[in-house]
Amino acid sequence: MKIEISKIKYFFKKIPRVLAEKAFGFSILFIFLSLILGGLIFYKYSILTQKTEIDVAEETFKFQERAYQEILKIWQEREEKFNAVDSKQYSNPFQAPPPVKELTK
Q1: CA nearest to 49, candidates 61, 58, 60, 41
Q2: Is the model more confident about 15 or about 38?
Q3: Owning domain of residue 35
């Protein structure tokens, strides 16, 4: 089956005219479709979420002291590294270099 480009162009050129001639019918159709789509979205995100029950975990929260100590140790190491940056002396890249001494024989 061969598709003719001229027929496709004619079809797409005809669409605005058909929409303009039957504007009332198409607007009613689009309003109806938007109401259906809005209803489906409302049903999915509002009504279905109320019907589902949340499974409550039987275990209570238990504080893990070992994990807390490891995290605290990592944070302290990071803080020490962060504070060490303030005390480090960096060379000034805008300062003129010191004069070079000539070697005498």
Answers
A1: 41
A2: 38
A3: 5-51
